[in-house]
Every structure is written in structure tokens, then in C-alpha cells.
Amino acid sequence: MAASLLPLHGQRQGHAPASSSDPSASLTATGIPEVVGLIARHLSKTEVAACALVSRAWHLAYTPFLWKTITARIPNPHNALILPDLLSRFGSLIRTLVVTDLHEHFLSRSEPTSELVFDCPGIDNVVRLTVRTDRDKKRAFQSIIHRNRLTLRFLWLTFQVDKSKKSADWRGEPIMMLKPPRPDQELQSWLAKTRMPYLQSLYLEQWKMSRQELIWILRACPALTLLSLKDTHIVHEDVLLSTASGSLEDLDMTSLSIDAIPIDADTESGSSSGGDEAAETDIQSGPPFQHQALQTFRMCSRLSLLLDLFPNIKTIEFYQFDRPANELELELFCESIRSHCLNLTQIWSYGYECSMLPLVLNSLKNGKGLVEFRGCSDMPTVLSILEHARTLEEANLTDFTEETYLPLKFLETCPRLTRFYTGQSPTTMTDVKESVIDHGWACMSSLKELRLGIKKISPALIEAIMQDLGAEREVDPKMYVLKVVEDAKEATSSNKAPPNKASSNKATPWLVLQQRHRQRILEEIAALTPEQQDFRILFADYLRKLPCLERVNIGSGYYKIPSRSRRMSTGM
To answer: Where is the composition biased (Low complexity) (predicted)?
Structure first.
């Protein structure tokens, strides 16, 4: 590998390419950081470590890539003895740190070194930090977060909590050492010691905090664009104080205001009354706080009254940690969207309760309308999405339900649609033919990617249509690498064989399978029925008229469509 890089080094320095017999030439090639980066990107950790042992020059070049990404569990006491020295020497090279601890192990690890080994002054340039461990080790990571607060861009914190112990300190305030400012402390002075100016993505799981504590976090992260709250409880400050001897599930839900309803609680919530503390925004007087940069909020419906903090939010994501909401909760959620989320245009609802989506989607009519939807798609949800046909640009209905309803209706009524993906659907070739001839597609001038499930369409017919379009099947990179390797083996075998026997070498099994599959498809294409041939001509001609179409999948994988100029030049 190194020998092939020698001309680059010679050309970079303005000299003739180094001789392949020069033993130092391969080492000097690593003087180009871009070359080292390209090499290390395609090597495993073991291979990078081997490169670092070749010479002093390679040690200096490859060691940063060896430490760039560290994934580790909380160490046991044995290897904790050697890690502090290594981390003090190389910790500053770590850019991505992932620390995990299996739930069944952490209770038996009470040694201080097992939790503090990563609390090392040398670890001070981390950009991405992911922590999944028990709450007892929380204090060690407070220091790590605070030490790297000026470099962090991505932070994911999950501290596993044994709810049966009814822990009193299960709360979000300590996660970034964001202790509220003292009454005599100015806000700017407090921010100077706590601000994380470049943090863009924050994931908090299994926390309990008040609305005010969340505001402290938001104030300290002015560049935050994504906030994810999973299994997180937003409660009032007085509720936090009253839970010192019990869990949140023990509380009388009727005594809380609506924004004190816990997310993913095991008990069903009831009515609630408001409190003055929910309106508190700062120790300083002034307008209510709002985070201007946040654009994506991963949430549950019970977090609806936090939406007033995010006036510029564009995307709301629901994941499997949500559950059906009661009528009052859903009404408050939709009202919050109408009042505070005028820029909201994207709804992602993976694993979300379908019955709630129509009301949520209808709430977007007061704003800019729905631009992108991903998620579940029962019939009421599909009808609600189609009410936003004028603004819809992307709809991903793939793999979230057993069937996709009315897929052709999207193509016929959404003029701005650029990407459309369906799962299984009852759409037949006759339906597609009627759609193309009788209605036409409103998105002809904008559609770039299409995945359309067509019932009972054969692989041979799909291949014939793609051949007419001049499309190329997208190959799995792993299969492509396998083909290259086996082609190389075949070439090597041919070179070693006697000249009179080289042509008799058998192809590799993978190539044999591909050749057989190709031959079978060609035979099936020749045997297409007249009805299938008519559909082939009609659909291929129609897809050819879509000027922006780049990728298409109608049942047997994605194909890359040549550009319109290329199609015209080849007469397709």
C-alpha cells in the first residue's frame, strides 16, 4: 500500500517519484496528513495499531487514529491500574468516547478506580461523548463533561436507575454541573463557567428535572439543534423536594400541573392544576426564555408544554417510547403546536400511536404545512397527510405498517414531492396504468427518488423496465468487494496455470451464481406476456419523462437512473 503512495509524495514535494528500492520512501509518504487519514479510515483498530509499531515516523502518524475513537466499558479493578497512565499520555487524542456498563455488572464494582478512571485531566478534547452506565458513577462523568464543555458537539447520557430503590437523586440538574446561579451572581458570570458553546446534539435518558433546570441546560447550550428526552420526567421544583423518600410513581398526579406529568409513567395521568413556577424562566427579570437554535425535538406527547421554549423548531420526532395519550393530553399537545410551532414542517413518528397522528397533522395547518413525514400510515393518517399535498416534499411510509394505503394518490396530488417511499401495498399494475394514463403524476418535474410497491410484478418485468431506462442496479458494497476479491483470485489462478489450461479454469461460485441468475432473467424477459410487455413500454416511457428521477425501486432493489442529458445523448 505504501509503495503505491510514493509518487504522491514525490509530486507533492516537486521531485521525481522515489525509487521503490528506497526503504525510507514508504515512511516519508506518511508526512502527508491527508494520505495517512485516507489509509487509517479503511483500517481496523488492530491494523492501525500494527502500523503504529512499524517505525517512529509511523508511530507519530498513526497513534492519533488509534485513540481517535474509544469504545470501552467501565474497567474492572485489574485493568484500571494501567489505564490511568495510558489516558494521561494519550487522552488528549480522544475525539469520540463511548463508555458503557452492563446493568448486571455495575452493582459488584464498588472500587473507586473503576468509576474514576476516565476522570482524567488528559481527556480534554472530546467531541462526541456517549455514556450508558449506572447513576452511582454519575459524579465521575460530571468532571469529564465539564472539562470538555468547550469541545463537545454531541452528548448522550443514559444513567441506569433501579426504580425499585426509589432513588431521590434521579434528576437532571447535576448532569453538566449546572447548579443554579446564586442570587447575587450575574447570569453572564454563571454562563462563563458552564457554557457549552458548540454542543449541537443532546440526548438525555432516564432523568428527572424541573422546567427551570431544563432552561439552565438550554441557556448553557446556545448552539443546540437537536434535543432528545427519553424516559424523562419534567416536574416542579417543589415536587422534586417532596420526592426525597419516594418515587415519582407514588405521587398523586392530580396535584401536579400539566407539565409535571411524567413521560412514560406506569400510571395513567389525571387532571391537573397549574402553578406559578412553570412560568419561571430566570433569576433575572425579562422576557420568557426561548432557545432560538433548536430545530429537532425528540419527544413524547407529555412534553407538549415545553414547545413554547422552541420557537424555531422544524422537526418533531416520536419514537417507540411514546404510548397512547388521553384526550386532555392530546388536546394540549395539539394546542401547543398551533400556538408555538409555526415553523414546524416535519413529523417523524417511528413506533408512534397511529390514532393520535391525524390530530397532530391537522395542527400544522396554521403554520407552513407538512413538508416531510416518516412513520406509521393507517388510512386516517394517510388522509391527513394528503390534506398537506400542496406542501409535502417527502413521505417515507416504508416498513412501519403492513400496507401502505393510497400510494398513487401521493404521486397524483403532491406537486412538490421529491422523495416517496412505500412498503407493501395492494397497488397493481392495472392501478399504475390507470394512474399514468387517466390522472398523471403531479410531481413529474420534482420527483427524485421513488420506492413503489407493486403487487405481483415479476423480477423479470422489473429488469426489463430498468433496461429500457438504461438504469444500473445499486450493488451492495460488501458484495462488490467480494466480487473484486474473487476476480483477483481468478486472475491469479489463471496466471499460474499453464497456457493451455488457463482458459479452462472455472469461475468462482459467486460469479457462477450471478451468471446463472442473469441467464434466468433473460429467459424470463423473453417469455413476458403481451400484457406485461405493454406495461413495460408504458411505465418505462413514463419514468423516462421524469427529468429529476435519480433512484427507483419497484420491488427488487434500487436502480440508479442516468441523468436526462445522458439519456438524450444515448437516445433512450
So the answer is: 16-26
